[in-house]
């Protein structure tokens, strides 16, 4: 049986891992390659890197991190931030990433998903979407690092992206991000039920129960977290031990 | 020396990185002569079967690959590199290498496709002692696939995995070894398998 995945997320700027709260006020959390190795040893199922500033100057630093991570870790990892073209994606994959996540670039130009899936296969293309609840039962997709409200519903965009070739969805709740108050279960369940690809839930991990809730009630295939792991609130091993005690299948 | 076959598909780098970590000697090549000169071959691969076959043909390495495997050269196929060994694939309805009898079929029962993540491999056949040496039964390995192989000869199925339906995740037939999962991305268990392959070919 396929296990649920626990995925530490490394938000980076200028080659350093940082963590923000609701997409602002960042704190330094350390060296990405060292953290990646540590998480690999600690039982992470996968890693996610997001270049949150994604400027041209940062691109070379990012590729350096990708290359060094690929040499060190024994598990898959994805990289995202500022991907605008098939060439951007090719460069990241060539440097050793297993998947690439697209966000704003894909929203503005949905063909990008199609082109990337055709070039590298669906399994390489992760649609990353940042979502905020803006009304009763209405979750809207935000782009440009959470600054621009598109007004498009999360489920609608997720379905479209999958029909274009996205192989996985990384779903971040802006409301929950960095609050440690739990994942957005309703949002995740809605998206997970609407699409035929795996959904990684992101934003809000605080207590151990949050992981169990999002994987069961939220129907997420994977749960992503940053602060709780970076700042040592508990380890991935501890989370997995807890999930096992709740009869959720995880890798040893 | 191991030759990792470069056919313009998937992430060859991750197999190379894994072999580096294990201290194995290898080269990455798409030259027929390097396939012939190699002591063993690895065919990695993620991506579409049709593109894989087209690329092998364009580089004139499909026939060489068949010949070298026929001659008994140790071979490891990974993911798409496993699927291409069979007669045909439902993915794009294409003819594959026909080194092994059987076909490649899409998952039917599970809602989420591709299968992405860690799944367990149940060892079905103890003749695999070399490849799975030091890897406990039901270990978790990393899979990314929408399609799986159905060999005509069931006796070559060494390991099985469940994803809505039971499918062969490891096959071994004489010098041919292949896994549906990615050992190069499967932590300790995967690295142990690669190490076993390297020990076997050395």
From TrEMBL, chain A:
Catalytic site positions: 11, 130
EC supergroup of this enzyme: lyase
InterPro entries: Aldolase_TIM, His_biosynth, HisF, IGPS_HisA/HisF, RibuloseP-bd_barrel
Protein origin, superkingdom: Bacteria
Catalytic function, reaction form: 5-[(5-phospho-1-deoxy-D-ribulos-1-ylimino)methylamino]-1-(5-phospho-beta-D-ribosyl)imidazole-4-carboxamide + L-glutamine = D-erythro-1-(imidazol-4-yl)glycerol 3-phosphate + 5-amino-1-(5-phospho-beta-D-ribosyl)imidazole-4-carboxamide + L-glutamate + H(+)
A GO biological process held by the record: L-histidine biosynthetic process
Primary localization class, coarse: cytoplasm
Any one Gene Ontology molecular-function term assigned to this protein's record: imidazoleglycerol-phosphate synthase activity
Subcellular location: Cytoplasm
Keyword set, alphabetical order: Amino-acid biosynthesis, Cytoplasm, Histidine biosynthesis, Lyase
Residue ranges crossing the lipid bilayer per the database entry: none
EC number: 4.3.2.10
Pfam family, one: His_biosynth
Cellular component, GO annotation: cytoplasm
CDD domains (alphabetical): HisF (cd04731)
Pathway: Amino-acid biosynthesis; L-histidine biosynthesis; L-histidine from 5-phospho-alpha-D-ribose 1-diphosphate: step 5/9
Family per record: Belongs to the HisA/HisF family.
Assembly description: Heterodimer of HisH and HisF.
Its biological purpose: IGPS catalyzes the conversion of PRFAR and glutamine to IGP, AICAR and glutamate. The HisF subunit catalyzes the cyclization activity that produces IGP and AICAR from PRFAR using the ammonia provided by the HisH subunit.
NCBIfam families linked to this entry: hisF
UniProt protein name: Imidazole glycerol phosphate synthase subunit HisF
Organism expressing this protein natively: Candidatus Gottesmanbacteria bacterium RIFCSPHIGHO2_01_FULL_39_10
TrEMBL record, chain B:
Keyword rRNA-binding: no
Known role: IGPS catalyzes the conversion of PRFAR and glutamine to IGP, AICAR and glutamate. The HisH subunit catalyzes the hydrolysis of glutamine to glutamate and ammonia as part of the synthesis of IGP and AICAR. The resulting ammonia molecule is channeled to the active site of HisF.
Pathway(s) of this molecule: Amino-acid biosynthesis; L-histidine biosynthesis; L-histidine from 5-phospho-alpha-D-ribose 1-diphosphate: step 5/9
Organism of origin: Candidatus Gottesmanbacteria bacterium RIFCSPHIGHO2_01_FULL_39_10
Gene responsible for this protein: hisH
EC number(s) reported in the record: 4.3.2.10, 3.5.1.2
GO molecular function: glutaminase activity; imidazoleglycerol-phosphate synthase activity; lyase activity
Reactions it catalyzes: 5-[(5-phospho-1-deoxy-D-ribulos-1-ylimino)methylamino]-1-(5-phospho-beta-D-ribosyl)imidazole-4-carboxamide + L-glutamine = D-erythro-1-(imidazol-4-yl)glycerol 3-phosphate + 5-amino-1-(5-phospho-beta-D-ribosyl)imidazole-4-carboxamide + L-glutamate + H(+); L-glutamine + H2O = L-glutamate + NH4(+)
Record keyword Cell inner membrane present: no
A GO cellular component entry from the record: cytoplasm
SUPFAM superfamilies: Class I glutamine amidotransferase-like (SSF52317)
InterPro entries attached to this UniProt entry: Class_I_gatase-like, GATASE, Imidazole-glycPsynth_HisH
Oligomeric form and interacting partners: Heterodimer of HisH and HisF.
Protein known as: Imidazole glycerol phosphate synthase subunit HisH
HAMAP family attached to this UniProt entry: HisH (MF_00278)
